[in-house]
UniProtKB/TrEMBL annotation:
The chain crosses the membrane at residues 12-31, 37-56, 81-106. It comes from Copranaerobaculum intestinale. This is ATP synthase subunit I. Keywords: Cell membrane, Membrane, Transmembrane, Transmembrane helix. InterPro entries: ATP_synth_I. GO terms for cellular component: plasma membrane. Its main location: membrane. It comes from the Bacteria. It is a multi-pass membrane protein. It is found in: Cell membrane.
Length: 123
């Protein structure tokens, strides 16, 4: 496993830990209604991981002419946001609060930020 793959693995692992912590906190804070909040956090976290994996796959495949690469990247970008839209819309339709979904999704962004701060070059 190369250095990039190790970094991606660390980010995924940290994301799962953050989602679990957020889900448990929501149960403790919101009591019985915290179960749906926790479900939203977990669903949002899974969407974040799926999107992160999609970005990784896209970045590994982008090559060639700038015009072709740009079109490819745009197509993948649109697919990723369509996936987010479908996942979030279905979850909201089933009664999950959108803020809980966003909190779970943001766990992925926080994992990236933490990993970057911990392992940045020269630091």
């Amino acid at each position: 496993m190369n250095e990039e793959q190790q970094e991606y693995q660390r980010i995924r692992r940290l994301n799962v830990i953050l989602v679990i912590i957020a889900a448990l906190c929501s149960i403790l804070i919101f009591g019985k209604s915290g179960v749906t909040v926790s479900a939203g956090v977990v669903i949002g976290g899974c969407a974040g991981i799926l999107g992160f994996n999609s970005i990784i796959r896209m970045s590994e495949k982008v090559s060639g002419e700038l015009q072709d690469a740009s079109r490819f990247a745009y197509t993948r970008y649109m697919r990723r946001y369509l996936m987010y839209t479908v996942i979030f819309a279905l979850a909201v339709w089933r009664g999950i609060h959108p803020i809980a979904l966003l909190a779970g999704y943001l766990c992925n962004k926080l994992a990236i930020l933490i990993d970057t701060a911990r392992y940045k070059e020269g630091g």
